[in-house]
C-alpha cells in the first residue's frame, strides 16, 4: 500500500512538473510596455499598436489595452505626462485608467499578432485611444495644465498656416491643419484671399536681406506668434504632408514633422491629404506646445522695428537698445540697423503682447523725442521716434 | 486594343497590389498571414515529348466461365496526340492545378483568356505577343525554349511595363519622403527591401510539359452463352492503361535582374489509369471507338496528374490558403474563403500557433459548410475543429489533401449457415480471419457536396484464410478443410466526430461477395454488413478504425467433395441464410496520387454556374 501511495505521489508530482502551467500575476500597471504610435486618426484620437501578455488571449488583450493607455500617458516621443513631477502626481489617476482602459478605447482592430513565449500568450492589436478624454481627466485633476489654462496663464501662440506650394490639395492641407490647431485651442489667423504683406513689413524684410520668406512676412503682417508651412505630396493611393512651424518674431523653427496617410484606394484624394495632416498635426501640436512653454518660461520673443530719421537715428537706437536691455535679461539680437531704421529681437518674460511692450518701452525710453506706436500685431511692434524732422522709411 | 490594355493593367495590378501585405504597422505579422489572391500567367499550349503514344497491345480471350489467357500482339497501336487534344489537356491542367484561387491569364494563339473571380474574358492580343508554340521536345529543350520566350517575347511587352510601373511607384514618393521618411520611417511604414520584394515578386508563370507516357492496351474477346437460345456468341472490349507524369515549371519575374527566373518544378503523377469501352461491343471495335477510349483515358490521366500537382502546390506556403482565426469558441471558425478559393467540403486545415519563435501545430479542423462566394454577399465558410482547439489569433493553413486513402484492415469475417440435414443440425461456421485492402474516399470532398460531408466510400478486396467447422451428425464435430477466401465489396460510412479529440464514430454498411479458392470446396456468399465504426483521426493523412458489425446474407453456392470424389452441390444441406459477426481493425493512409478516382472529382466552383 505504501509503495502504491509513493508511486501515486511521484506520478502526481511528475504530472504537475510536466504540465505547462501558465503563471501570470495580474498587476495594476501593464505587464508589457511594447507599443508604437501608428497615426492620429482624429484631432483628439490616436491609433496605437500595443502588445499585451497573459495566460489567454482574453487576458493578454486586457493587458494590451493597458499598454495602449500607458503609451499615450507616458510612452513615445510626445507623452501627455512629460515631467517626472506630472507622473508622480498622476499615479493614482493612472491606476484608475489602467483599471478601466476600455473607457478610453474607441476601436480595437482584429488581432495583429499572436505568439506564445515562455508559456504565456502575447497578442498585439491596434487601438484608437481617446487622447482628448485622457487629457481632460488629467487636467481636471490638475495634474497637467489644460490647453485652456495654458492659454490663460501664458497665452497660447496665435497661429497662421500657409501652403508651401499651390495645387489641387493645398487648400485641403491648409484647412485641415487650421482645423487641427483650432481643435487644440490655438487662435488661428487666416490670411484672406488678396491679403498682402503690409508696407512696413515689406520694407523691413527688404532691409533685412533679400532671402526673406514671404510666408514669414505674411505671418508678421497678420500678427501671429507662430506660423506653419505645409507641403503635401502623394499619389492616388497615398499622401504625405510635411509641416514646418516657425516662431514668427525670430524665425526660429519650433518643429517639423511629416505625416502619412495609409495606402488605400479612395475616390477622393483629399481624404488621404486630410489623413496625412491628422498624422502630422498631432506631432506638430505637441512640439509647439513643448517649445512654446519652454520659450515662455525663458522669455517670449518680440520683434521690434523702429523708424526714425538720419539725424536722430543713432541716438534713438542707443536709447531704445538701453531700454530693451533693462527689460530683458537675455541678449538682444539686432537684426537690421541703418541710419534711420532698425529692428531687434528681444526675449521678455511676463510680456503678453506687443502693446504692453510698447508701454514698458515708452516708460523706459530716454532718447530723442517720444516713442509713438505705428502698429502692434502679436509679437511684432513697430514704433517711431525722432527729435526733429520727418520719419524716414528708406532702404539704405 | 482596349482589351489588350485591360489585360496589361490587370497583370500589373495583380503583380503589385498584393504586395503591401506585411508592409505597414497597420498590417498583421506573419502569425496572422492571410492568403491574398494571386495572378498567374500560363500558356494554352503545353509541351509533349511525343506526337503520338505507342501502345503495346495484348490480345485476350475468355470463355463464358471467365477462364482464358492473354498473349502479346506482335504490333503496337500509335495514338496521335492532335492539337485539340493537347489544348483540352492544357485546359484540364489550368482547371485542376491552377484552381480558382488564382486569377489566370492564359496566353493562347494570338489571344489571351483572363479568368478572374468575376468570369472569363477573351482578349485579342493583336500580334503584340508572339504565340508560344510548345512543340514536341525533351524537357531540357522545352525549358530552354520557354525561358527564351519568357525573357524575349513576353519580357519585351510585360517586363518593360512592369519595370516602369515599379519605378513609377517610387517616383510617386516625394524627394523629402525618399530622404527622410525612407530613412527614418521605412521600417515603420514598411518601405523596406522586403516590402519591395513583396511588391514586385508576387506573380508566377506556369508551363506544363508531359513526360513520356507509359501505356499498355488489351483487346478482350469474351465468349458468352445466350440464355435464350443457348448459342454461343462473342463480345469485344478495349482496355487502355496509361500513366502520365506532367512537369509543371514555375517561373517568377525578378525585378532586380529584370528576367523571368525559375521558381521550381512540380511533377504531377497520374498513377495508373485504365479505361475501357462503356459497353461490350458485338463486333471488333472501330478505330474511332478505340481512339475515344484512348482520349478519355488520356484526359483522366491528365486530370489525375493535375490533381496530384495541385496537392504538391499546396505544400508551398506561397500557394496555400492561410487565414487567421478571427473568433472562435474553440470548436467552430468562420472564414470568407470559399469555393472561389477552391475550398471544398471537408477541406482539412492545420491549426497553427507560434511558440517561442517556432510555428507549431495544435490541431486540425475541417470545412463543413463552404461559402459559395461567387459574389461578395455570401454566407461564410464554417470550419469545425476535429482535433485540438482553436482560439482567436491562431492560424489556419490548408492541409494538402486529396480526400483519398489507402485502406488496410485486419479482420475476422465469419458467417454461419444453419444445417437442415437432420433434426438438431447445428450447421456450419465459416471462420475467415484475414486482411482487406482498398481505397477509402471522402465523397463530400471529391464531389464538394455538403450533403455527402464525411461520407466515405470504401472499395475493398478481401483475402482470408479460415476454417470450415460443422457437425456431421448429432455426435461428430468436424473441423473441415482449410478454406482460402477471396472477395470484395463496397462500403459506405458516415463519420461523426465526437468532441475535438480526433475521435469519431460512424454507422456504416458494406456489401460484399466472397468465395473460396479451394479445389475441393466452393462456397460463395453475398453479405450485407451493417456495422459501427469507432476511429481516431491522428491527422488528415492517417486514421485508424475499429469496426464491429454483423454479416447478414445468403449462400449463393455450396459445393464440396466431402461426400464423394467430385464436388457436389451441398447447398441443400443448409438453410441458405447466413449471418455472423464481423470485426476489423483498419488503417487509412492518405493517397496523394488519385489515379482513376480522378473521374469522381467535381470542380468546387461548379456551384457558381
Query: Oligomeric status of the shown chains?
Result: heterodimer
Largest beta-sheet characterization of chain A: 5 strands, antiparallel
Overall mean pLDDT of chain A stands at 79
Number of domain units of chain B: 3
What key phrases describe this protein's structure?
heterodimer, A: 396 residues, alpha+beta, Rossmann fold, Alpha-Beta Plaits, 3 domains, five-stranded antiparallel beta sheet, five-stranded mixed beta sheet, 40% helix, elongated, B: 609 residues, Porin, eight-stranded mixed beta sheet, 19% helix, flat
Concise description?
The complex is a heterodimer of chains A (396) and B (609). Chain A has 396 residues and is an alpha+beta fold.
Write a structural description:
- The complex is a heterodimer of chains A (396) and B (609).
- By secondary structure, chain A is an alpha+beta fold.
- Chain A folds into three domains: 21-140, no CATH class; 158-295, Rossmann fold, CATH 3.40.50; 300-384, Alpha-Beta Plaits (2-Layer Sandwich), CATH 3.30.70.
- Chain A is 40% helix and 27% strand.
- Chain A has eleven helices and 15 strands.
- Chain A has helices at residues 2-18, 57-74, 84-99, 131-140, 147-154, 170-183, 199-208, 214-222, 270-298, 313-327, 354-364, and strands at 35-42, 45-54, 105-108, 113-117, 120-130, 158-163, 187-189, 226-234, 239-247, 253-260, 300-307, 333-337, 341-348, 372-377, 380-384.
- In chain A, strands 1, 2, 3, 4 and 5 form a five-stranded antiparallel beta sheet that branches. A five-stranded mixed beta sheet of chain A has the order 7-6-8-9-10, with helices on both faces. A five-stranded mixed beta sheet of chain A has the order 12-13-11-15-14, with helices on both faces.
- Residues 12-19 of chain A have low confidence and may be disordered.
- With 609 residues, chain B is an alpha+beta fold.
- Chain B folds into three domains: 2-313, no CATH class; 322-398; 404-591, Beta Barrel (Porin), CATH 2.40.160.
- Chain B has helices at 2-17, 83-96, 139-171, 175-184, 186-189, 193-200, 287-313, 443-446, and strands at 38-43, 47-48, 52-62, 68-80, 102-107, 111-116, 119-124, 203-210, 214-225, 232-243, 245-254, 259-269, 273-276, 322-324, 332-335, 348-355, 358-369, 381-388, 395-398, 404-413, 415-419, 428-431, 433-442, 455-471, 477-494, 496-497, 503-516, 521-539, 542-560, 568-569, 574-590.
- In chain B, the strands form four sheets. In chain B, strands 20, 21, 22, 23, 24, 25, 26, 27, 28, 29, 30 and 31 form a twelve-stranded antiparallel beta sheet that branches. In chain B, strands 1, 2, 5, 6, 7, 8, 11 and 12 form an eight-stranded mixed beta sheet that branches.
- The two termini of chain B are 29 Å apart.
- The A-B interface holds A 36, 38, 49, 56-57, 110-118, 121, 123-124, 126, 231, 233-235, 238, 240, 242, 258, 260, 262-263 and B 20, 23-29, 31-32, 169, 172-174, 176-177, 180-181, 185, 188-189, 324, 326, 353-357, 391-394.
